[in-house]
Design goal:
By secondary structure, the chain is mainly α. It has helices at residues 2-20, 32-38, 40-49, 58-83, 89-112. Keywords: Membrane, Transmembrane, Transmembrane helix.
């Protein structure tokens, strides 16, 4: 858990460096934080309301699709902002590095702490 916290703080540090360094000094990249907060929500919903995670059903597929859209948007926003010369490409690189670290941390969290509910709601 401590190493995951360290990785998350390193990723956020890359994001802040991409915004705050004097040669970049542009805070538009902070909108990527919205994607960081939104990315685990569909997975949590699918784990909570799906009957089983191993089988495929519509809820799991929609949640995977939404998570993929959020993931792609987090990488696409800095690239589009850099392409339109709103931010510099160096800042874009730092934010993309931060994206890789933060999303890896989120993925590792779900891998290490994936627990199935042992309580059967239909066993009344």
């Amino acid at each position: 858990l401590v190493s995951l916290a360290f990785l998350a703080s390193a990723g956020i540090t890359f994001l802040v460096l991409g915004c705050a360094l004097p040669q970049y000094n542009n805070w538009w990249m902070m909108f990527v934080l919205i994607f960081y907060f939104l990315s685990p929500i569909p997975s949590l919903i699918s784990r909570r309301f799906a009957e089983t995670v191993e089988s495929s059903n519509a809820l799991i597929e929609i949640c995977i699709f939404i998570t993929t859209c959020i993931f792609i948007s987090a990488f696409g926003l800095p690239i589009v902002l850099a392409h339109k010369d709103i931010v510099k490409w160096g800042a874009c690189g730092l934010v993309l590095a931060g994206n890789v670290v933060v999303f890896s941390t989120i993925f590792l969290f779900f891998v290490f702490f994936a627990k199935e509910d042992s309580f059967q709601y239909s066993s009344w």
